[in-house]
Amino acid sequence: MPVDSAVLHQALDPQWELDHVDATFDRLGTRYSGKVRENFTRAGERTIIVTDRVSAFDVILGTIPFKGQVLNALATHWFELSAPLFPHHVLRVPDPQAIVAIECTPIPVEIVVRGYLTGVSSTSIWRAYERGEREFCGHALPDGLRKHEQLAHNLVTPSTKAPKGAHDQSVSKAELFRRGLVTPELFDELERRALALFAFGQAQALTRGLILADTKYELGWAPDGRVLLIDEIHTPDSSRYWYADGYEQAMSRGEDPRSLDKEFLRRWLVARGFSGDGTPPPLTPEIRVEAAQRYIETVETVTGRPFVPDLTPPLPRLARNLGLA
């Protein structure tokens, strides 16, 4: 059941949204702030607090009501579901917006898997194809493909992990080897396992009436040498979801598929002249509420369960659940 729009508008009040966590939380360990997550490392464990911040084109834009709770619920769902295929770093989930995980050494490559010729950013596979490029990250692409068309088979198109504030780069595996970021043996393993995981995600999504068009996986080495999934998996921040119903009709009309992720937010930004450079337009209350509705619809559709947001102020709740209060 969708969350009432009045609740979402009420949640635009800063006291109900989690943008930053104060110095109290530094007692959890050494802090690292990502675009969306606040990370604290201590004694081999990492506490990850998922804020309500939203980013696009590697730029933080503001906050979306209940976004952190949705992302945490979705990632937890997928981590548990896919664990037989690929082990993950999660140890426990003490709060709707936090997990405690095994501290891993990140592998300095994002494993992006694409099933469709799509995207709006300048680095996307569609933009490259539109410019006339017929090779993307080392993969040859035939002439005559249409925007949003399914590729002949799923492709791994790795990306470098840029410092915060900079843009990631899509590169071939040969370029990764040249830079010394991964060995061929490790990449072959990651590629094989990522393709299996993505195919599993696509099959599961289809049972819920969704197309999982693409995604990215972040991986790390555990202290015992295992490669684990870290960060998040198959969330609207890391993946594109389309409704399966209506996809063919949209393609026949040359329209964008009806999406259930933050792609609409990217399109909203592009329509206002922002695609990663310069100052982004401020998010209006209307677009923030619409984004919240889409995030909530995603978690409910994927999991098949109603999303019931925790309406208590997030900072004192997190402090209590993480043992700081």
Which descriptors would you attach to this protein?
single chain; alpha+beta; D-amino Acid Aminotransferase, Chain A, domain 1; seven-stranded antiparallel sheet
Descriptive report:
By secondary structure, the protein is α+β, with helices and mostly antiparallel strands. It has a single domain, classed as D-amino Acid Aminotransferase, Chain A, domain 1 (2-Layer Sandwich), CATH 3.30.470. The protein is built from nine helices and 16 strands. The protein has helices spanning 5-10, 67-82, 125-130, 173-179, 184-207, 247-253, 263-271, 285-303, 314-321; strands spanning 30-33, 37-42, 45-50, 53-56, 59-63, 90-95, 98-102, 105-106, 109-116, 135-136, 139-140, 150-156, 159-160, 210-221, 227-230, 239-243. The strands form four sheets. Strands 8, 9, 12, 13, 14, 15 and 16 form a seven-stranded antiparallel sheet that branches. Strands 1-2-3-7-6 form a five-stranded antiparallel sheet. The two termini are 33 Å apart. The mean pLDDT is 94.
Tell me briefly what this model is.
The protein is of the alpha+beta class and 325 residues long. It is built from nine helices and 16 strands.
Helix share, percent: 25-40%
Structural class: alpha+beta
Largest sheet: 7 strands, antiparallel
Q: Let me know the average pLDDT.
A: 94
Q: State the domain count.
A: 1
Give the total of beta strands: 16
CATH top level label: Alpha Beta
The number of helical runs is 9
CA-based shape = globular
Remind me, CATH topology?
Answer: D-amino Acid Aminotransferase, Chain A, domain 1
Please state the second-level CATH architecture: 2-Layer Sandwich
